[in-house]
Amino acid sequence: MPIVTAIVLGFIQGLAELFPFSSLGLLVILPKVAHFVVPTQGARYLPFLVALHLGTALALILYFRHEWVRIIRGFIRWVGGRRTTDGLMAWLLVWATIPAGLAGLLLKHKISALFGRPLVAALFLMVNGLFLLWGSRRNRYRYHRTLSQMSGREAFKIGLYQVFALIPGLSRSGLTIVAGQREGLAPEDAAHFSFLMATPIILAAALVELPKLHHGVHGLLGPALAGGVAAFVVAWLSTRFLLRYFRTHRLTTLAWISLALGVAALVAVR
Predict the structure, then answer these.
(1) Exposure class string for 177-214: b at 16+ Cβ within 10 A, else e
(2) Residue 44 has pLDDT above 70, yes or no
(3) How much is the average pLDDT of 14-29?
(4) What are the distances in angstroms from CA 174 to CA 2, 63, 84, 123, 126?
(5) Using CA atoms, how far apart are residues 99 and 107, in angstroms rounded to an integer?
(6) 253 HSE (CA, 13 A, CB side)
(7) CA–CA gap between residue 23 and residue 232 (Å, rounded)
(8) pLDDT band at 187, cuts 50/70/90?
(9) Which residues are within 8 A (CB) of 212 and not within 5 positions of it... i.e. 6 or more apart?
(10) CB 204, CB 93: distance < 8 Å
């Protein structure tokens, strides 16, 4: 894979992982539309995609570094018998991560088979846009709690939505932001929790898949590093923009963009 191609794909990953456009969906569709020389079959492409996601996760860790320090300390204190708000956040993230973690382990090979099917990704990108429109309108004026008022059960329910994002075309951030709003969170808090949720699941996937790149499988180590750096930079900028955006905006505009991207992709890949 050319380094330039890897950088372009990293840019798309860093943008679409946090904007609700499905990075997996676009990374399946774009090589087909742009005629990139990319090994899009699941077993060959998955380690590379995980490397791009890892760049995104590292950007999120950097952006929320002070909060992650508090969360880890809070978890340790909670285990020691001292309950704090930061400790609660740690447990909320544990509960939210369980569904996608189990699904990823059990359904990895079936999901990987979808990575070579851009038509499926385009269709689900349209479904994603419609779901975001529904969620944005249904959840209007229903915000009544903060993150510190959430329960483990509610975090688990939000995590269930993250399972569907394993399908290319469905946005992890979009689904979980809608889920957070359904549990009473304001858009900004829902986005905040969604971005924190992304880190554990991506790091877990990286532990499984990245050794394949380290051993030189498929010759993608160099492109993966270049794409990961691009994803890191764009994800950091995207996080900064979106947390401000959701203070005064809803998902509606982004939902229409997702729907338009799906329609355009469907026309392009047929």
Answers:
(1) bbbbbbbbbbbbbbbbbbbbbbbbbbebbbeebbebbe
(2) no
(3) 86
(4) 31, 20, 29, 16, 13
(5) 12
(6) 7
(7) 14
(8) confident
(9) 47, 218
(10) no
What 3-state DSSP class applies to 151?
A: coil
Tell me the two tokens of residue 76: 């340790």
Q: Are 50 and 198 in contact (CB under 8 A)?
A: no
- The pTM for the full model equals 0.85
H-type helices in the chain, by residue range?
A: 3-16, 23-34, 42-63, 65-79, 85-112, 118-138, 152-164, 172-182, 187-214, 221-248, 252-269
Q: Would you say 24 and 121 are in contact if contact means Cβ atoms under 8 Å apart?
A: yes
How do residues 219-269 score in pLDDT, each as one tens digit? 677 888 899 999 999 999 999 999 999 888 888 899 999 999 989 988 888
Q: Check the CA dihedral 170-12-19-90 and report its sign.
A: positive
Token look-up 């969170």 returns: 185
pLDDT at 143 over 90: no
The Cα–Cα gap between 34 and 40 comes to 13
Assign 110 a pLDDT band (cuts: 50, 70, 90).
Answer: low
The count of C-alpha atoms lying within 13 angstroms of the C-alpha of 250, restricted to the half-sphere facing its C-beta, is 17
Q: Which of 250, 20, 57, 49 is nearest to 138 (CA)?
A: 250
Structure token digits, residue 223: 């492109």
Domain boundaries, the chain: 3-269
